[in-house]
Amino acid sequence: MGLSFLTLAHTLREQVDQHMTATAGLSLSRAKVLQALAGRGALHQAELAAVLGQAPRSVTQILESLERLDLVSRTGHPEDRRRKTVELTTTGRTTLAAAEEAGTRVLRQLFGSLTPQQLACFDALLTHVGATLAGDEAD
Predict the structure, then answer these.
(1) What was the pLDDT predicted at 10?
(2) What pTM does this model have?
(3) Do the Cβ atoms of 36 and 43 come closer than 8 Å?
(4) What is the pLDDT of residues 85-103, one digit of tens each?
(5) What is the layout of strands, in order, in the sheet containing 43-44?
(6) How far apart are CA 40 and CA 11, in angstroms?
(7) 76: Cβ–Cβ under 8 A, 6 or more apart, which residues?
(8) Which of 38, 61, 84, 93 has the most CB within a 10 Å radius?
């Protein structure tokens, strides 16, 4: 069952990613960067890397490509040239909204065929597994 779940999750992620990229030109991994900035506001690159749980160098490469697309802006610190603050641009907000809508459409298609009872049961199971992963005591 575990392998089936992992396979299903991987396939679902790929479908969401493909639809977001085709519709809005923004992959799921890049959308996560923009979501972090949208939710937290301007962040230093190192803070953003920590929020995303990624290596700073990996985040720098993503940010360079997002900056070329005018989805984020990076400004240097006046006293430390190595320290950059990253901010979501207006274009970034618009693109993120389009990508999120595209991803939501895929999820609605998949989960829309489930009854409210099935959705509630599935949600409860996911919550339980998530709590177990987090080390919380399960009910």
Answers:
(1) 95
(2) 0.83
(3) yes
(4) 999 999 999 999 999 999 9
(5) 43-44, 84-88, 72-76
(6) 29
(7) 83, 84, 85
(8) 84
Q: At what angle do helices 56-68 and 28-40 cross, to 10 degrees?
A: 90
Q: State the Cα–Cα distance between residues 40 and 98, nearest whole angstrom.
A: 19
Q: Is the pLDDT of residue 106 over 60?
A: yes
In whole angstroms, give the CA distance from residue 90 to residue 21: 19
Q: How far is CA 37 from CA 30, 34, 51, 85, 96, in A?
A: 11, 5, 10, 11, 11
How do residues 56-95 score in pLDDT, each as one tens digit?
899 999 999 999 999 999 998 777 777 889 999 999 999 9
CA dist list (Å): 94 to 20, 80, 97: 13, 31, 5
**How far apart are the C-alpha atoms of 84 and 72, rounded to whole Å?**
12
∠ Cα 107 60 32 (to 5°) = 15
Judge contact between 110 and 103, C-beta under 8 A. no
- Record the tokens describing residue 95, joined without a space: 């693109």
